Amino acid sequence: MKFTIDGLEISAEQDDTIMDASRRAEVFIPGLCYSSSTEPTHSCRLCMVEVEEKNSLRLVAACAYKVKENLKVVTTTERVSKVRKTILKHLYSMAPENPAIMELMNLYKIEKAPIIKEKKSHCILCGRCVKACEKLGISAISTVNRGVTKEINTPYGKPAEYCMGCGSCSEVCPTKCITIKDNEEGRTIWHKHFEWARCEKCGVIVTTKEHFANSNPNNTPVVCPVCKRRYMTDVFADTFGE
Amino acid sequence: MTKKILVCCGTGCLANGSQALVDQFYLETKKLDVNIIPQIKETGCNGFCENGPMVTIVPAHITYYKVQPKDVSDILESLDKEPVTRLLYKDDSGKPVTSKEENPFYALQHKIVLRNTGVIDPSCFNDYLEAGGYVGLTKALAMEPIKIIEEVEKSGLRGRGGGGFSTGLKWRSCHEITGEFKYMLCNGDEGDPGAFMDRSIMEGDPHSVLEGLIIGAYAIGSHYGFLYIRDEYGLALKHMQKAIDDAKANGYLGNNILGSGFNFSCEIVRGGGAFVCGESSALMASIEGRVGEPRVKYIRSVEKGLFDSPTVLSNVESLANIPYIMTNGAENFASIGTKGSKGTKVFSLVGNVNRTGLIEVPMGITLRQLIFQIGGGIPNGKKFKAAQTGGPSGGCIPEELLDLEIDFDSLKEKGSIMGSGGIIVMDENTCMVELARYYMKFLTEESCGKCTPCREGLRAMLDILTRICEGKGELSDLDLLEELAYVTSEASLCELGKTAPNPVLSSLKYFRDEYLAHIVDKRCPAGVCPKLIKYEIIPDKCKFCGLCVKVCPVEAITGKPKTPYIINQNKCIRCGNCKSTCAFEAIYVE
């Protein structure tokens, strides 16, 4: 399937959204809640573009709108830039000086002026962390409350029973605002403390005990990747001779 | 013919004590001769709640207002004689009127949706049958589903929840999709401040909603449905549940409905009180047990809705129209209304208006008729300023547009919306900036907070409006407001966000001078914004009675005997208690 973004022809697969196809073709459309590895949330609204429908232009979210044959996408209009600029200013008010936001602010040459002057947690409520946790089958975190009091948290702000401390939420976070405290003893994330599962051979940290137990069959020995390779070499040597 | 005494037992009249009235009627009719005992009916809302409890005598069609238990004996005595004049409504010329039709509040009304409300006992199945209920369903079940859809399309019925999308077309799209499971939903999650149309319909005539739902389900090929009703509506929930149980017991719900071979069941889901759950996709998420957040709708819910199955969601009022259309025909329905909007619309008329309440009028009626004829004008001889239609997602309509014929398209063109039908009338003492701020506050709290432009845009607009109301606004704020409103309406994910800036945009359009007065002159022309006004005592008018001192909650008023009292401006919190208490009009707002 072929379509164009600002006149540039791009090919798309069945069921691709504009964003899927453009990221694959390395044509840049900004979007902070979009990630190819998690389910979409369509929440940040930075990726708004115009598409030609019935001879008029319609503003749509690129991460949600499915590509059709010969679709014309335009990203250079006044309308798109106006929307993008204001949304970036909103995001800047939520996460001032955050590298991910600053990169886009500089790209679109937007002057640094928060609309509301208030110190924020840098979370832009994109929901990627929630979707990552959901995809792992855990759903330890979700959005809590509504409107301006909305936040990402565990149920009732207490340690979540099923959280395994894997840190995937933090990994996908575009503004890197999820607090993880790692030290020699273990890891603290989302109000919960985890002990390390250390390699039985060399003692390096593999992951948290809960994460390891969750991703391996019962009674699997905790071995780090380096030792595992070394250990397997020994097995091969025993079997086939040196 | 047995005489009937209809006692209004809508929520408003119940609050005014109509239950005690019913009890008194039962008590006193026991003493009467068995042959002339009138039948007592507890009906749904009559709409004129501020004059409740209302009692109507049929077949004489005499309606009494503000009836108290002590009036019961007089009413019973008068049954074969002249009506009790002191309990009649007095029209604008002061003449007492007996029937509802002569009452100016009812004169212009045309009842389709509310045809049974206030006439039948909503918890009595036979009452509904006797009033012509389920005739539409019987007719529909003998028809091909597609013929029903054609009939609804021909009637020109548009969704009454606010969107105004053609109901027939929606049904057709769902009918054309093949799917084993389809759902038919009813949206009873009415959440606009000052709106109570759907509540009154569900309370007063639950079977008409249910009948509409069953007809819709048959037309689209659905066998299961949900009624999503907000939990605060206790009486509506009770009556709706009773209606479902009765319909099931009488073969109008369940398997093989009326021997047609068609199966349909439904249940009630109680809403948890989030305004956003009135939005279709959030409502479906809520029924599924997920967080009530809307989703993007490039795939329509008639294809993939509840539990990813084809789904039709219709508003309470839309559904209540369906039995009427099936019974009386599409032409009959389409003969009422304007070119683009057919039928009637139920409005809740509230605010600064002499007669408030629930009304049903033909589409195309003007705001002037609504406010000045039905509503009887503005109280205390004050001037009309604006009317807010469509609740928080709507806009204000100023005086110069009073002759606008109300329908879906005309309101949209003027920057407001029909919404679900709340009309809030405001007099000259309403500050339009404060009003916009109030709605932004409501929406900031009720936005689901999922997408950036809605959550942050509303928060920023509220911030700016609060600043303006406190006299800290700057001229550049107006441009910023317009920019934020534009982006919120363009980029938001759902209709809540897209329509949320309407109160700001419409008040900026029609009342820009008030914004300027707040910003440039630091003055609130309506005398409302606390930070911009002060209360003063006119020494010549003060009679040293000391009442104001008593009602002041912060002890800001001081005075010695026989000398005019003084308000300490540093202590005053501008609550206005003193002004409303002063009998000599000695206190004024500056």
Largest interface: A-B, 35 and 34 residues
| Tally of strands of chain B | 19
Average residue pLDDT of chain A = 91
Mean pLDDT of chain B: 93
CATH homologous superfamily designation of the largest domain in chain B: NADH-ubiquinone oxidoreductase 51kDa subunit
Structural class of chain B: alpha/beta
Number of helices of chain A: 7
Our count of helices of chain B gives 24
What is Rg of chain A? 23 Å
Q: What kind of sheet is the major sheet of chain A?
A: 5 strands, mixed
CATH architecture of the largest domain in chain B: 3-Layer(aba) Sandwich
CATH fold-level name of the largest domain in chain B: Rossmann fold
Our count of domains of chain A comes out at 2
Number of domains of chain B: 5
As a percent range, the share of helical residues of chain A equals 25-40%
Oligomer: heterodimer
CA-based shape of chain A:
globular
Strand order of the largest sheet of chain A: 2-1-5-3-4
For the largest beta-sheet of chain B, the strand count, sense and barrel status come to:
5 strands, mixed
First-last Cα distance of chain A: 55 Å
Binned, the helix content of chain B reads 25-40%
